[in-house]
Design goal:
The structure holds 2 protein chains of 2 kinds.
Chain A lengths: L25 H12 L10 E5 L14 E4 L5 H11 L4 E7 H7 L1 H10 L3 E7 L2 E2 L5 E2 L23 H7 L4 E6 L3 H13 L4 E6 L11 H4 L1 H7 E4 L6 E2 L5 E6 L2 E6 L19 H9 L8 E8 L5 H16 L4 H5 L4 E4 L1
Parallel strand pairs in A: 1-2, 1-3, 3-4, 4-8, 7-8, 9-13
Antiparallel strand pairs in A: 5-6, 7-13, 10-11, 11-12
Chain B lengths: L9 E4 L2 E9 L4 H15 L2 E7 L14 E9 L10 E6 L2 H7 L3 E10 L5 H6 L16 E5 L1 H9 L6 H5 L2 H12 L5 H10 L4 H20 L5 E4 L8 E7 H16 L3 E5 L6 H8 L7 E4 L3 H14 L2 E6 L1 H17 L3 E7 L16 H6 L9 E2 L6 H16 L3 E6 H5 L1 E5 L45 E3 L14 H17 L10 E2 L3 E8 L3 H13 L4 E6 L1 E3 L5 H5 L2 E8 L4 H10 L4 E4 L8 H12 L1
Parallel strand pairs in B: 1-8, 2-5, 5-6, 6-7, 10-11, 10-12, 12-13, 13-15, 14-15, 19-20, 19-22, 22-23
Antiparallel strand pairs in B: 2-4, 3-4, 9-16, 14-21, 18-20
Classes of the chains: A alpha/beta, B alpha/beta.
């Protein structure tokens, strides 16, 4: 880190633009968290680029005093890939939503993740289309009654984290808009990851899907329905930390501690587990009755970054052949003189 | 013995000749044609080629859909087209003969591989009567040659299996053509040595087959005449043979070198554009970044991202891919970033005719985006011109901060011609300025002359700003929905594209500067129109020809030039797209000559139309 780096504050990352999300929207909390984490990262402001697609979440760049690009629906990962390949030295962040990243832009999302482009993706998941005023999204639960599904949706939703792990994302995490300390801590981890970092942020749309994550965010319910993953720590949850998760064959199992069952029987979380199947298993547990929803880092493994490999290939060819000589190239192959 | 008494031989000198090699897609016709082309070019002839192949990689052998052809026109004079009709047709099987014989001139030379004319071969080609026996070919000089058998005989010492030997029979045919036109086999020897570096026996086999073909003609009394076609008088310089796709790739590489901007190509494979991606992928030593994207949209949007970061960004595609990119091209128009989009047009709509040529994407290029989203559109007119168009497109894009569309087509992409290699001094300067000054910076503040907004390299301190697809306020670039601001911005973006007219030279008609009829063309029809123009003027008609390399904006004096002729005819490989533009813009009662067969115009088709209109 440069010693001459100016000390940045949250204010340095705020723009003069009026924030136009609905009052009470979870996006405000996410913006606040990002604006408070960015100054801590030791990166000069001009080296941040925030890219977004279309949707409520995608207004994000307008409110960040960095370089920013509000692109078109679903394409932010592809634009960000172009930026990152051209300038691997920049910190490129994508702000996107469940519709933007998983429906219209699903293809770009999975390909950016499989390539391990060094871009941080913040996926604001509110399980609804907000900006188009309330249609169900690819993360809406089956049976969802929304504007376009008055009789309930018959779509099977994506499990967001399973999808990212399936694409072999090297960093997969989840946090919640209202869990500010957790969100900031997870943002810091995402920032520190080399390679594609995928962070699902459960976010409340108080207009079209209020309370979508209530069971996780309400004080009374939270402890029994959320499990915080900590690398090297056993999978424990519950108000009294008396419940845990262990392996049973190929499945996970919720167990109550006591009666001979101890923490030693539980899975010790290993975010660096080389087999994505482990993280995949974690990402599936919330779908089963009695299981909590995991938050925190599911997977954080090291792998070569796409843009670095692409650059290295260029360097290797130059090292081997020398810098290209245009005059020579134009005269490649059979040439002849006309006098 | 035949060698005791060498047949009486004549050598005739001709101005020009057209050869077409045709056979199965697996018969190596494209290689055979390219080799003859290269040899003719090196010899100093002017050339024009027309490779014509099916979309299927290997259609069932011997069938009609599997026929692949390569036509070359080489001459001692200037050549503008691959030729309407052929002097020599090499047909490797009945299907190839059936599909191509109609284009052979009466009295022309027909070389046929008789080993492939068994009943089963005829059946595959859906032929009932063997054309070699039913006198249907009586109007031609037919040489039935046992190509397969003779090739095997020539290679018997090499220990290759039958399949490998049969793969060399195209070189037997090539050797025959080299004898026929008194050509040296040296260039092809060099090519074979290079191509089969790892398998010298195959280089040897092909050389032997070629030599056998050459000697066969020499020893066979049937071949009485061979032909000389002296070199053309091209303007002095160093030449190479070049195809349109290669020329585009080299043009962008040159633009990158001249501007100092790193080149970024985001592309998705599509026929007939993929070769540009293949070509540029080889030039990593020039610092080129090539990105094979997950789809056409990502190809375009990654290019936008790279342009935003400060690269010279391009994407290459064909019609269907173009349609997919359109929303993103509109974004580039809105955020005013320089990206060059190459559309190598092919037959459509939808998947259409992937390997065949067409010019029906003009209106898509001009108007294919939602709302008012004009941008400069350029079209190269010959394979070599693709080099210059690439440079020009890159210059305009970076100078005016605007996406630019280049409309090439399958015919230019794969066709080849001799190309004079420019000296460094002939290449345009491409100064590109990035904004670094914070004083008074606003992302949408404009250059007074070009109306371009400033280009800021990402990472520049103090110039952090936001851009996006929402309408913005002039100057600040802040999101703005006000009615009058929107109209102002729509008009401004259009005015900026119109300002590009400053870069475009006035058109000057070839042929008569005024008169009875003006031919207005664009893109790859240049050769056929130029050739037709020459002929009809020799017949005494007063005809001019304007070929538009700039389709938006149009050259300033075009409307005035149109008025100097009684009639205006617009030949296009579509149903009248430039025609519609000219009629709408200039209220001129222009007449269309339209062909949509996946094939370029014949010179004669254009001549016939001129005669018809002037009657």
């Amino acid at each position: 880190m440069s010693a001459t780096l100016p000390v940045l504050t949250r204010k340095d990352f705020q723009t003069d633009q009026e924030v136009r999300w609905c009052p009470g929207c979870g996006d405000y909390a996410i913006l606040a968290a990002v604006q408070s984490v960015f100054p801590e990262l030791g990166v000069p402001r001009e080296r941040f680029v925030v890219v977004s697609g279309i949707g409520c979440s995608s207004r994000f760049p307008y409110y960040m005093n960095t370089y920013g690009f509000h692109t078109i629906h679903g394409r932010a990962p592809a634009v960000a890939t172009g930026v990152k390949m051209a300038r691997p030295d920049l910190e490129v962040w994508v702000a996107t939503g469940d519709g933007d990243a998983l429906s219209i832009g699903g293809n770009h999302t999975i390909h950016m993740l499989r390539r391990n482009v060094g871009v941080k993706v913040l996926l604001f998941n509110n399980r609804i289309y907000g900006l188009t005023k309330g249609q169900y999204s690819p993360t809406s639960e089956r049976g969802k009654k929304a504007k376009s599904t008055p009789f309930g949706s018959v779509d099977q939703p994506f499990n967001v984290l399973s999808l990212a792990i399936g694409a072999e994302a090297t960093f997969v995490a989840r946090s919640v808009d209202v869990f500010q300390p957790h969100l900031k801590a997870t943002l810091r981890k995402a920032a520190a990851h080399k390679g594609a970092a995928f962070l699902e942020i459960l976010q409340n749309c108080n207009i079209f899907n209020d309370g979508a994550w209530e069971i996780l965010t309400e004080k009374e319910l939270r402890e029994d329905h959320v499990i915080g993953l900590e690398h090297g720590q056993p999978l424990l949850f519950g108000k009294d930390k008396d419940k845990g998760i262990r392996m049973n064959g190929l499945n996970l199992e919720v167990v109550k501690l006591g009666d001979g069952t101890t923490e030693k029987d539980l899975i010790v979380h290993d975010e660096k587990h080389p087999n994505p199947a482990y993280a995949f298993l974690l990402s599936r547990m919330e779908a089963q009755p009695g299981f909590p929803t995991p938050i925190g880092v599911l997977r954080a493994v090291e792998a070569p970054r796409y843009e670095d490999d692409a650059r290295a290939q260029v360097d290797a060819v130059i090292a081997k052949r020398g810098r290209g000589d245009l005059e020579k190239l134009l005269r490649t192959g059979d040439v002849w003189e006309v006098k | 013995m035949a060698t005791m008494e060498a047949p009486l031989r004549r050598r005739e000198t001709l101005d020009e000749a057209v050869i077409r090699f045709c056979g199965d897609s697996g018969d190596g016709m494209q290689i055979t044609g390219s080799q003859f082309t290269n040899t003719a070019a090196l010899f100093g002839n002017d050339i024009s080629t027309f490779p014509d192949f099916p979309a299927e990689i290997r259609a069932p052998a011997g069938t009609l859909p599997g026929v692949s052809g390569f036509q070359i026109h080489f001459s001692t004079k200037d050549v503008y087209t691959p030729g309407d009709a052929v002097d020599v047709l090499v047909a490797m099987n009945p299907a190839a003969l059936k599909m191509n014989v109609a284009d052979l001139k009466t009295g022309g030379i027909l070389i046929v591989n008789v080993d492939n004319f068994k009943d089963t071969d005829l059946r595959k080609a859906q032929i009932v009567q063997n054309p070699l026996e039913d006198h249907s070919l009586d109007g031609y000089r037919v040489f039935g040659v046992e190509l397969t058998k003779l090739t095997r005989a020539a290679l018997k010492e090499l220990g290759l299996d039958a399949k490998a030997m049969d793969r060399c029979k195209n070189f037997f045919a090539l050797g025959m053509c080299y004898w026929l036109y008194n050509r040296s086999m040296n260039a092809t020897h060099r090519w074979l040595d290079d191509k089969f570096k790892a398998k010298p026996v195959l280089a040897e086999a092909n050389k032997l087959a070629m030599k056998a073909g050459y000697s066969y003609c020499e020893a066979t009394e049937a071949f009485q005449v061979s032909y000389d076609i002296p070199p053309a008088r091209l303007s002095p310089g160093t030449y190479r043979n070049i195809s349109g796709n290669t020329a585009l790739a080299l043009g962008f590489l040159t633009a990158s070198a001249r501007s100092g901007l790193p080149l970024f190509q985001g592309s998705y494979p599509i026929t007939p554009a993929s070769d540009i991606l293949h070509e540029l992928s080889m030039y990593k030593d020039f610092g080129v970044t090539t990105f094979q994207a997950e789809d056409e949209i990502a190809a375009m949007t990654s290019a936008i991202g790279a342009a935003y970061a400060g690269s010279l960004a391009i994407t290459t595609t064909s019609g269907p891919g173009m349609a997919l990119k359109m929303e993103a091209i509109g974004l580039a128009v809105m955020v005013e970033l320089p990206v060059v989009i190459c559309d190598i047009q092919r037959g459509g709509p939808s998947t259409g005719l992937p390997t065949k040529t067409e010019q029906a994407d003009l209106l898509q290029a001009l108007f294919g985006r939602n709302s008012e989203a004009p941008l400069p559109v350029l079209a190269p007119q010959t394979p070599g011109d693709c080099f210059w168009i690439a440079l020009e497109a890159a210059c305009i894009a970076t100078k005016y901060m605007v996406p630019v569309i280049v409309l090439s087509d399958g015919y230019l992409a794969n066709g080849a011609e001799p190309w004079r290699i420019p000296a460094s001094a002939e290449l345009p300067a491409m100064p590109v300025k990035f904004r670094t000054d914070r004083q008074g910076f606003m992302p949408y503040l404009r250059d007074a002359e070009t109306l371009a907004r400033p280009w800021v390299k990402l990472g520049t301190p103090g110039l952090e700003h936001r851009i996006g697809g929402l309408e913005k306020q002039e100057g600040t670039g802040n999101v703005n929905y006000e009615a009058l601001n929107h109209e102002h911005m729509v008009r401004l973006r259009a005015a900026k594209v119109q300002a590009v007219v400053a870069e475009i030279p006035d058109v000057e008609a070839a042929g008569d500067a005024e008169g009875d009829l003006l031919l207005v063309g664009w893109g790859s029809t240049y050769g056929a129109i130029t050739a037709a123009l020459r002929t009809v003027r020799e017949r005494g008609h007063r005809v001019g020809h304007v070929h538009l390399r700039h389709l938006n904006p149009l050259p300033r004096n075009l409307g005035e030039v149109l008025k100097r002729y009684r009639k205006v005819v617009v030949p296009e490989m579509n149903l009248g797209q430039l025609l519609m533009v000219l009629r709408a813009k200039f209220l001129v009662d222009a007449i269309g000559l339209n062909k949509v067969q996946g094939k370029p115009f014949k010179q004669q088709e254009i001549e016939a139309k001129i005669e018809e209109v002037l009657q």
